[in-house]
Batch of 2 targets.
Target 1
Amino acid sequence: MNKKICVYTIAKNEMKFIDRWYNSIKDADYICVLDTGSTDGSFQKFKDLGIIVEQKTYENFRFDEARNDSMKLIPDDAEICVSIDLDEYFEPGWTTFLKDKWRENIGRARYRYTWNFNPDGSEGIVFMADKIHKNKAYKWKNAVHEVLVPTTDQDLKIIDIPNIQLNHKADNTKSRASYLPLLEMSVKENPYDDRNTHYLAREYMFHKEYDKAIEMFFRHLSLPTARWDIERASSLRYIANCYKHKGDKKRQEDYLMLAVLEADYVREPYFELAIFYFEDKQFLKSAFTLNEMLKIKDKQINYMSNPACWGSLPYDYLSMCYYEIGDYKRAIISVEKAIELDPNEDRLKDNLKIFLNLLNDSQH
């Protein structure tokens, strides 16, 4: 069967990312770009690289429309379509892995996606993304946080190819100003879309519109399609965060506890509840909650995960809890585990010296 690959995307003023992006995808059979109004030379750069490129500007931009227009550039004989943005790049070998696994009855392929990196270069949030699809079988939907939806009744399979690694290094200088109105538009168009309802609530929270955020998170939790317990727990954690900023500690604690009950097999709700207790100087409760969290050994791969839950920070907090309650032996054990996970943090080493001295003094 034909296994030609086409990488396609939309772009605007991405000159600083083009070389890294292009070098990671140049093994594809086709590369297509819809430039949405670059003024930094990106459009000419795409042309110089031999990419199939057109330019189109929009009076009222929305991501689904632009991405669907970019799909019109894909040649008819391309079987596999790969949508990646300019601030993303593949690790080598991805085309070989993709062609090896692709079959006629496949509609989508999921791959390993590192959404961000920690300051030390280690991976942050990692999950399986799914923007590889069969040509002419899908379209994009939603003004922002757009998703692929089928356009045929074919019974197409979804496969996982974890050997394919895509990395994301975002341009944090770009404005997110358009996201809020686009999310409001998206939820107005699809009021039962649980995913974008959650995102809209989160965006209100980012804009410090806490009452609007709380109302929209409750709406998300009420939707019949909002069944993913990890996302539901995330909404509850965000509600707690909104109440924190409103100065309502009682409700903050209540919703963090509800988040734990909603998804008691992931670390994030426990971690936020433990920090709440620590900041409230309830050190025994904080230590208990952290110990319950650390019993969870199965790390979930999803975009709601918090890498801090798996680093040195839980043991760091735990050591300080034990220090506050005078249990210096456990404080030492905990900070030593924190140092194992973060051997370059001098503060942890200083804390260890303090705990050792305190233990020594208490024994004399």
Target 2
Amino acid sequence: MPLLKPFCAWRPRSGLEHRVAAPPYDVLNSEEARLLAKDLPESFLHVSKAEIGLSPEISPYDEQVYATAKDRFQFMRDAEIMLCDPTPRYYIYRLRMNGRDQIGVAALASVDAYLQERIKKHEFTRPDKENDRTRLASTLNAHSGPVFLIHRHHPTIEALTTQIISTTEPTYDFVADDGIRHTLWVVEDTQTIQEFSDTFNQMPTLYIADGHHRAAAAARICQKRRETSPKDDSPQEPFARFLAVVFPDTQVRIFDYNRVVRDLNGLTPDLLLQQVSTIFSLVPANTPVRPTVRHEFGMYLSGQWYSLKATLEPDQEQDPVQRLDVTILQERLLNPVLGITDPRKDTRIDFVGGIRGLEELMRRVDSGEMAVAFSLFPTAMDELLAVADAGHVMPPKSTWFEPKLRDGLLVQTF
């Protein structure tokens, strides 16, 4: 079973890449996407968030949305806004953020490897988001948003990507509206393609960083089509693969993923402080608290920041899940004190990527939308890999990855 394979990507016609490539579907709400794509008829948001072309009263999960997405994707191909490569290739995808490079290889990953946990996950999925991506991909017969995978650093992969970048001109090279530079090289040389395949397929495991819902959706589509067409029960079938970009663990950066809670579960601010002080070491702070070490947290309540610190028993420090700061906050405070028993489904909690800064936490509390906010120290890469290797999962929204891969830059059809 090949872990990764080259493929024939549908991708923007040269010169349109900066207009087609769009932010991931899940970092924008419908209104934000509508505004961003208003003057960009080529934007892939018209496919990945097709509700923007319909009345705002229509639910993003209405059947019209998926039908519209299918029509828009077909239009982009018919109008040659997107073209398909004639032979299978790998694609080198470099993201540059604040002068820092992250270089990955775009390929098709094996659904069977995912089902057999050779491609490891570290989070559960939310049913509504998984259903949405399943319906979209099944309607399109395409995976358009890549799953962000991680491999442990390998010198051969590094050497191959370095050689391609240093000796060939990129196919695309543009700076998106968020300041991230996206550069893509198409790998056509058959010997280089084979070297990539041989090296990747000898790796014991890959890890999902971002895109758990897209990977789960691909697995559901594959299993459903195998059930309805048993003759297609083969890892070589196009639907037995999903679009991915795989990066070395040494280049990937994880940001903090912070929490805001809508109410205090019936407590007054003073009572919350009393309870929190029995669980953590609590000290008022004169400035916003961005934790600098593990087991330190910031709490913003009634216009005041506090620094919280936790201590763990030795056996807890040895457990890959129990030692996570997201676990500590959930099990010691969010659940027992604020009543957030299931953060995957509870509408009283929301999650704010660290890229938005502490100012976003303060804004949401000061506006009255939320009652309290918590800042966390980012989950470390070795913590993520340890949880995945142990076959465990983290609490929801444990990791926030930046920079984000663009939708529509490469599309896999099946």
